[in-house]
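Work Package 4 report. The design task specified in the project plan requires that, given a folded chain encoded as structure tokens, an amino acid be chosen for each position. We show below one input record used in the internal validation round.
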């Protein structure tokens, strides 16, 4: 769910939160053991966002039935959109009424256990999209507050503003914020996170609106995640928050979203709205305030992006963007149907997908997943940008693990061909120049040679994506 700022809370609570935050910041100079996230996401991993009802009318069972398909696609982790009990019958609902039960229209606990078990047999991890920031107004806690007011034992379970009114973000009037200064709220939510690890073997969580809890009670996340890793050291944690804020990785999250400093704003959006300047815009997005580039969740689509990328920008740009998504540092999130160019809006309750690959995209996605796994340069190599100068629609970078394992990625996002001039450092020129190269996507073989000034020139056709690797 997409974030925005909300007015401050009551004075007393804000003052106490400020004290806690100051103590936390003081401790950040020497991070305690376990604060840095463990190596829970394997190098080269591909995550797949699953909207269960788009898989069929028996959602959890139908996801299980397509695990062979996802395995063949090269998926390592599936992330289920919220499956907890809700009062909202929509395909995707963040209005939770019970954190310890599932939506009956999606399936039961046995269905979930079967899904996790079958996924594990195929080497695929299963994560849940969890909603700790708020409850539904239909949640029993909130209903008790409405009925009994200050006499309710749950009265202080909800965050309140200076006027004593329960807070919420945006226009989410039906999604009241929980009060994480209350120890029983922290205890309840920690038990809920642990529950699905114990009961179903869940491998991790996406924490919806993690930014909201960070605003109101930043002291919560580190000890909560530490408790989860005491049960399963390999639990994967994804923050719905911007990866440019170091807070999340410092507090145990493995991944956060590819947003700008402004919450909810996709860092790559300007690239595709002004493709004639794609080179400089990509360069800015990939290099500005990058705290931990390998901890960035790279997406073209997710639950909040509305119309699918292919609908907005077309098939040709989609192909080039998919190559970018899979070859830069970070973990690509392929969302339900991306690999076949499915067109829908997640919150408009689309029908189950037909899985017809009418754009012939699946082979590209499978190839990219395979290259991420096979090439050390792509899955864990250093990232060296080689941006063409001027207002170019093209971009280039090299991923390098060592002198024998490297990949030069060349991209042109526009419908016009581009003569690209690259200005690599001298050691990169020596590495590339004269080498026998092969495009890992098309199989085309070539050699690149620098001129006397150390410049590399290359003609890129319209909508080109190349991954040049040394011939073995």
């Amino acid at each position: 769910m997409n974030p925005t700022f909300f007015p401050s809370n009551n004075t007393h609570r804000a003052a106490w939160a400020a004290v806690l935050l100051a103590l936390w910041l003081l401790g950040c100079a020497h991070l305690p053991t376990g604060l840095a996230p463990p190596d829970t996401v394997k190098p080269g991993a591909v995550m797949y966002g699953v909207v269960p009802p788009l898989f069929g009318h028996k959602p959890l069972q139908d996801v299980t039935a397509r695990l062979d398909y996802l395995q063949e696609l090269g998926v390592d982790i599936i992330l289920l959109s919220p499956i907890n009990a809700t009062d909202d019958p929509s395909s995707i609902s963040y209005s939770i009424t019970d954190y310890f039960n599932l939506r009956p229209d999606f399936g039961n606990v046995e269905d979930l256990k079967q899904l996790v078990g079958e996924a594990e047999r195929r080497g695929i991890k299963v994560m849940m999209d969890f909603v700790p920031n708020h409850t539904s107004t239909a949640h029993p806690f909130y209903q008790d507050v409405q009925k009994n007011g200050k006499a309710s034992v749950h009265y202080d379970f909800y965050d309140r503003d200076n006027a004593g009114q329960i807070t919420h973000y945006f226009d989410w009037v039906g999604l009241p914020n929980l009060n994480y200064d209350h120890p029983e709220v922290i205890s309840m939510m920690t038990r809920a996170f642990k529950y699905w690890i114990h009961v179903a073997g869940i491998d991790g969580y996406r924490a919806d609106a993690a930014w909201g809890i960070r605003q109101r009670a930043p002291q919560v996340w580190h000890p909560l995640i530490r408790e989860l890793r005491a049960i399963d050291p390999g639990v994967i944690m994804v923050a719905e928050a911007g990866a440019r804020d170091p807070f999340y990785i410092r507090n145990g999250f493995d991944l956060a979203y590819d947003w700008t400093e402004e919450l909810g704003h996709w860092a790559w959006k300007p690239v595709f709205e002004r493709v004639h300047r794609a080179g400089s815009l990509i360069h800015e997005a990939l290099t500005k305030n990058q705290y931990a580039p390998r901890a960035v969740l790279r997406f073209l689509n997710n639950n909040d992006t509305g119309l699918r990328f292919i609908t907005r920008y077309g098939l040709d740009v989609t192909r080039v963007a998919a190559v970018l998504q899979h070859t830069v540092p970070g973990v690509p999130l392929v969302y339900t149907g991306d690999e076949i160019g499915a067109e829908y809006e997640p919150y408009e309750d689309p029908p189950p997908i037909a899985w017809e690959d009418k754009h012939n995209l699946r082979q590209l996605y499978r190839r990219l997943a395979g290259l991420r796994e096979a090439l050390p340069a792509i899955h864990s190599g250093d990232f060296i940008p080689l941006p063409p100068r001027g207002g170019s629609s093209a971009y280039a970078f090299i991923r390098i693990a060592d002198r024998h394992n490297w990949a030069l990625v060349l991209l042109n996002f526009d419908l016009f061909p581009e003569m690209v001039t690259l200005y690599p450092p001298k050691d990169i020129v020596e590495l590339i120049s004269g080498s026998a190269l092969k495009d890992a996507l098309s199989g085309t073989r070539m050699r690149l040679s620098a001129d006397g000034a150390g410049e590399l020139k290359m003609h890129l056709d319209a909508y080109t994506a190349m991954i040049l690797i040394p011939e073995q």
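The CA atoms of residues 229 and 235 lie 6 Å apart. Validation will be extended to a larger panel in the next phase.
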